[in-house]
Amino acid sequence: CSRCNVLTVEHLNVIVVGAGLSGIAAGHYLNTECPWADYAILEAREAMGGTWDLFRYPGLRSDSDMFTLGYSFRPWDGAKAIADGDSILNYVRETAAEEGIDGKIRYGHRIVAANWSTENARWTVQVERSGSDDPTTLTCDFLFSCTGYYRYDHGYTPDFPGMDSFGGTVVHPQHWPDDLDVAGKRVVVIGSGATAITLIPSLARDAEHVTMLQRTPSYVASLPAINPLADRARRWLPAKVSGPVVRWAFALGTLGSYKLSRWRPAVVKKALRREAARRLPDGYDLDTHFNPPYDPWDQRLCVVPDGDLFAAISDGSASVVTDHVETFTETGIRLKSGDELEADIVVTATGLELLFAGGMELSVDGEPLDLPSKLTYKGMMLEDVPNLALAIGYTNASWTLKAELTCQYVCRILNHLRDTGLRQATPRNRDASITAAPLLGLTSGYITRASDRFPQQGSRFPWQVHQSYLRDYRALRMSDVVDEAMEFSNRRSPSRPLSGRLDTARAAPAGRSGSDSVPVDA
User: Fold this and answer.
1) Distance CA 71, CA 21 (A)
2) Burial of 56 (0-12, 13-18, 19+ CB in 10 A)
3) Percent of the chain with pLDDT over 90
4) Strand partners, 388
5) What is the largest CA-CA distance in the chain?
6) Which residues of 298-442 form beta strands (DSSP E)?
7) For position 298, what pLDDT does the model report?
8) Mean per-residue pLDDT, 282-293
């Protein structure tokens, strides 16, 4: 304002952070369940798709079936149950375009800080915009983080001795060069997780040879790339029926497999070993290379479509070495056993780094949040933090299953606030006997390295994270949003009439027709 010391700041009902699988799901449910809400999706990068746009390494594919990784409101209709990265990215983009969600995305907008004001019942969000040196400020009634928990600017690479002396190329899968040519090259992939196991069959088609160098084996399960039962169901049943039927069948099947792994690990170990032995050459050393020292699902189980990893090992284009890196040399890697692996290219598939809520600094009434001291409510909100939700998917099943339940629950909270004239939803733990445990519950290195920087889960409901779609379905879809742990408060002033927002007064700033704005003292 040129005549007063007031700065106009755009206000929204909801700010969604991230335009990946979860962010697009949030857009869908806001469109359908809260059509009154003004919202925007802020995406730090310049493209939609999150993980599926960021990662471009060869062979990138889902490690969950697409019938549950896809959306319930737009069932996956592709042929493959385990789909490639490009197909998943196109699916996300098409979903956003069909519903106009893509028009809600603001690219190059990275939230660096957000502060909740109890007095004003809103978040003030500080945003850095790519291509601009001037940060901008937005306010919102509700902040919904759909960033996942991977750090996007770099992955994790141990400080291996001698890396500077290596005469070949070292690449991390998170930053795969478009022009990297592996044809006729000797490739060593360090790692045994989902990324390494995905990379190796693809690289083996062109490379002279690919070696998977692992410190510790992983459990590997072979699944059909095209599931015959899902294929028949979609052929015989109408789409409105086959979509939910197939989705529930796969969700329950995955949950049953996980439960069996926890209750009878020896049974699952035996089945996985028998399948690996069937697909590998006679006499293959399973005890060394495919016999992890932990139980199934202590770490995430790796899936290979049609046993492609086993096929690459069987035809000799790939091999597995179980050992430790002593040092890089000029021509490869020397192992602690004394053996040396010659290499032209080394791929450090050594893991990812985790980053909570996209790295934004969160505070409540000016007090910075101590995240490790907070419990998570129903795996989606933080203790004593108002009007903030987090889409955190399952570690033992499809990410989207939990993300969609979270999106639906957020919309129920928003509608409850609007209907009751209240402005604040805050989880409160009033049970002093609740004890804390790590949030994600796996022993994988990328999780344990970051556990001291993440919030925690509690020992009992609603603070405990079950990693169970059935239990979460009951807790998030079939229960009331009003419970003993959720405090609804901060009544709207009667002088503020209700329009399309939780707390409103609509004024469109110049150049932003249809947006809300509020005056803030400069």
Assistant:
1) 9
2) middle
3) 58
4) 143
5) 85
6) 302-305, 318-322, 325-328, 332-335, 340-342, 345-348, 361-364, 367-368, 376-377, 381-382, 388-390, 422-427, 436-438
7) 80
8) 93
111 neighbors 126 (Cβ within 8 angstroms): yes
Distance CA 102, CA 24 (A): 8
pLDDT at 396: 77
Beta-bridge mates of residue 458: 436
Q: How far is CA 248 from the centre of its chain?
A: 21
pLDDT value at residue 435: 87
Report in angstroms the alpha-carbon separations of 187 from 75, 119, 207, 220, 334: 38, 59, 7, 21, 14
Which H/E stretch holds residue 262? helix 239-263
Strand partners of residue 516 = 11
In this predicted structure, what is the pLDDT of residue 351?
Answer: 74
- The pLDDT score that the predictor gives to residue 7 is 60
Contact 220, 272 (CB under 8 A): yes
Tell me the per-residue pLDDT of 89-115, one tens digit each, with 9 for 90 and over.
999 999 999 999 999 999 999 999 999
**pLDDT tens, position by position, 354-394:** 777 778 899 999 999 988 889 999 999 999 999 999 998 88
Identity of the amino acid at 332: G
Please give the structure tokens belonging to residue 231: 């294929």
> Residue 375 carries which DSSP code?
B
Q: Tell me how long the chain is.
A: 522
Look at residue 505 and tell me whether its pLDDT is greater than 70: no
How buried is residue 506: exposed, middle or buried, by Cβ count under 10 Å (0-12/13-18/19+)? middle
Closest by Cα among 412, 389, 396 to 470: 396
Between CA 340 and CA 142 the distance in angstroms is: 56
Is pLDDT above 80 for 450?
no
- In this prediction, residue 135 has a pLDDT band, given cuts at 50, 70 and 90, of confident
Q: What percent helix, strand, coil does the chain show, rounded to 5?
A: 30, 25, 45
Contact 110, 92 (CB under 8 A): no
Q: With a cut of 70, say whether residue 501 has pLDDT above it.
A: no
Calpha distance 279→216 (Å, rounded): 21
Q: Which amino acid appears at position 426 of this protein?
A: T
